[in-house]
Amino acid sequence: MGSDSSPSTYSVQMPEPRLHSGRSGRKSRNRDQSKISALGLSIFSSGETESKRLHNALERARAPDPNPAPKARSFDTVLCLDTSASMLQGGALEQMKKAAIEFVNGVEDVVNDTGVEENIGIVTFGGFSNIVQHLTNDFARVRDAIESMAIKGKSPFFEAMVVCLAAFDGRGGTVSVSGEYDVHPRIVFITDGHITECTDDPYGPDRVHDPTNTRAGFSRLMMDLSPKTNPSMPHPILFVPVGSRADRSFLESMAKLNDSHLVEADMITSLCNYFRVQETIGKVIVCLHNKDTDSSDGQIEAVVRALVPDIKSHEMREVLSTVKEELKQPSRKKSQRTNPTDFDEVHEDTEGVDRGERLPLGTRVKRGPDWKWGDQDGGGAGTVVQHEDNKHPFTWVQWDSGEWNRYPYGAEMGYHVWKTEEHPVFRRDGGELEIGMIVRKGSKWNQPDRDDYPGVVIRKSRGSKRVKVRWQSGQITACPADTVEFKEKEREKRRVSPIREEEFHSDDGQDDENKIRAWQWMDDWGDWHLYTQDQNRLLEKSFQRSKTGTCLVERSGKQFRVLFRKKVERDVSKGLERDVHRVLLPRDEYASLLLAEELMSSNH
Asked: How are strands ordered across the β-sheet holding 186-191?
C-alpha cells in the first residue's frame, strides 16, 4: 500500500455574493436611497452624499496600483486601521501601530518557520477610506505602510468595510486546500470604536451626528457579511479595540453580529497562526476522506500530530471539531484510487507538470528530504509512473526493487521523493526494456511521429511485448517493444562558480569604498550566484532591520523568500530551499563577478 497523505494544492477564487445593506434594516429599500453595485454585491446607501462617497471609494480601490507589489498564491488578510482624529486620544494610535506591527512580524515568523505564505493588505480610514497597501507577501512594504499613516478626519466605518471588501476584488479570494476545504480571506479591524457617518465634510470634527442610524447601518452590514447570510464573504471579521476610550461594547456587538469575536490588542499575535491551522484542517480532511469508517478523535489527532508536531492544545481542539464536522458532510464522496500498474490506465496531470507542482511521468526519483517510509524503496531509486488524479495529487512510484507505492510531493505535505540524475536504469546484455529506461525511436518505428525526442518507459505489458513511453515532448505512446531502443543518457557539464566561506552574520568592520556586503544563492548543482545589485541592496537593508526576518526577491518570474535565520532562500510556489551566503567582497571582485553573471544570463 502507499501513503494515505496528499500534498495540498491551492486554487483561489473570488466570491460572487449578492449583498443588500442599508443604513437600517427597515428603510433599506426606500425610494430616497441609492444603490451602489460593485464586487458582485449591492449596497443601499442613505442619500446622495453617502452614495457618492461610496462610489468614489470603490473607484479609488479599483484603480491600478502605481507600484505593484509581489503577491503569493495563498491566504489573504486585510488590516483595517482607524486613522481618524479620535485615535489621538487615550493612547489609541500608539497601541494600534504596536499591534499592527506585532501582527505583521508574527505572520512573518510563521512564514519563516512553516512556509505557509500569507498576503497582507492595509486599508485606512480617517476622513476617507483608502487602500494604502494592496495585498502582498512583501512584509517590509506592509510595515512601511503602517509606519507612514497620517491621522486626521472622521471615522466612516461603513465606507471602510466596503473598501476592505474591494481590496480582495481581483487580488485575493477564497483558497481551496486540495479542492477539499475552502479557506476564506479575513479582515482584522483595529479601532477605538467611535463610529461616524459618511458626510461631505470628512475632515470636520470626529463625532457622530446621528448615532442611532449610523450604528444601525453598520450593524446591518455586519449581519449581511456573516457566514450564515453570505457564506462566500470574507470571514472571520475580527475587531481589535485600542485606547483607554475604546467603545468595547459596540465592537463586541459588531463581532457577535458577524459570528466572529473580539481580540485584545495585546493578544493579536494569537491570530498569526490562523491560516496554518486552517491549512492543517484541509490536509487532515484530504488524508481521511477516503476512509470507509468514521475516524475517531485518536485517529484524527494522530494525523494532525504527524503533520504539525508543535500544534497547540487549543488549535488541536479547533482542528478536531472542524474535521469531524466536515467529514460528516454528505458531499464528501470517496474517490476511486487509480491502478499504477495497469497498462491502459495512465494519468498525467499535465497542468500540474507545467506549473512545476508535479514530477512528469518517467522522472527518476529517490528518497526525499521528508521521507518517512522505512525501506519501501528497497534502498534504491524508482520511476514516477502515475498521478492519482488532479484533485488529490499523489505521486505513484515504481521502485527498481519491483515494489510500488504512492507518496506526497509538494511544498504543503513535504517532498517525500526527490528527482535524481544519479540512478539511471541500464539495459543488461540481451535483457528486456524496463520501467525507467530512457529510449528512442528505433529503425522499426512505424508510427507517423518521427521526431527524435528521447522518452522513458512507464509501462510494460504482460510478456513485455508492448511498452508505453512518455516522450520528452509530453506525448505518451503505446508501441511494440522492438520499435524503440535503449539510449544512454549523457550528463550535462557543470559550471563551477566561486564560493566564499565567510561567517553569515559577521559584521566586523563597516562597508567602505573598497568592500561590499554581497549576497549569493546556490543553484541545484551547488554553484553560487550573486543576486542583482538592486536585490543585494534590498537584502542588506532588510537584514540590518531584522537579522531573524525575511526578504522577498523575484528571479525569472518567480518569488523567493530569503530566510535570514535559516540562511536559505525558499521558492514561494514550491517550498524548495537553497543555501544563501552573505560575504564581504572587495568591490572590484564584486563588480567582476556581477559582470560575469550578467554575461552568462544573456547567453542563456
From this structure: 128-136, 118-126, 75-82, 186-191, 237-241
Residue 38 forms part of a structural domain: no
Residue 29 reports pLDDT greater than 60: no
486 and 524 both lie in a single domain: no
Residues 581 and 532 in one domain: yes
Confidence of residue 394 (pLDDT cuts 50, 70, 90): confident
Same domain for 391 and 243: no
Whether 439 and 460 share a structural domain: yes
Q: In terms of residue numbers, what domain contains 106?
A: 70-270
Q: What's the Cα-to-Cα distance from 394 to each of 1, 175, 386, rounded to whole Å?
A: 13, 20, 8
Question: What integer pLDDT is reported at residue 512 of this predicted model?
Answer: 63
Question: Would residue 428 count as lying in a domain?
Answer: yes
- Report CA-CA distances (Å) from 271 to 224, 386, 528: 24, 39, 38
Residues 266 and 281 in one domain: no
User: Count of CB atoms within 10 A of residue 490's CB?
Assistant: 6
Same domain, 316 and 369: no
Per the domain annotation, does 44 fall within a domain? no
Q: Could you please report the per-residue DSSP string of 152-179?
A: -S--BHHHHHHHHHHHHTTT--EEEETT
Tell me the C-alpha distance between 603 and 593, whole Å: 16
Q: Please tell me the number of Cα atoms within 13 Å of 157 on its side-chain side.
A: 27
The structural domain count of the chain equals 4
| Residues 323, 412 within the same domain | no
If you ran DSSP here, which 8-state letter would residue 424 be given?
P
Instruction: Decide the pairing of beta strands 528-530 and 382-387.
Output: unpaired
If asked whether residues 229 and 357 sit together in one domain, one would say: no
pLDDT tens, residue by residue, 210-238: 889 889 989 999 998 999 988 888 999 99
Q: How many helices (H) and strands (E) does the chain have?
A: 12, 29
- Going by DSSP bridges, is the β-strand pair 41-46/20-21 parallel, antiparallel, or unpaired? parallel
**What is the CATH classification number for the domain harbouring 404?**
2.30.30.40
In this predicted model, what pLDDT tens digit does every residue of 129-167 receive, in sequence order?
999 999 999 999 999 999 999 899 999 999 999 999 999
311 within some domain: yes
Answer whether 425's CB lies under 8 Å from 435's CB.
Answer: yes
Neighbours of 517 (CB within 10 A): 20
Q: Where are the beta strands (DSSP E) in 358-403?
A: 364-367, 382-387, 395-399
Q: Left (φ > 0), alpha (ψ -120 to 50) or beta: where does 47 sit?
A: left
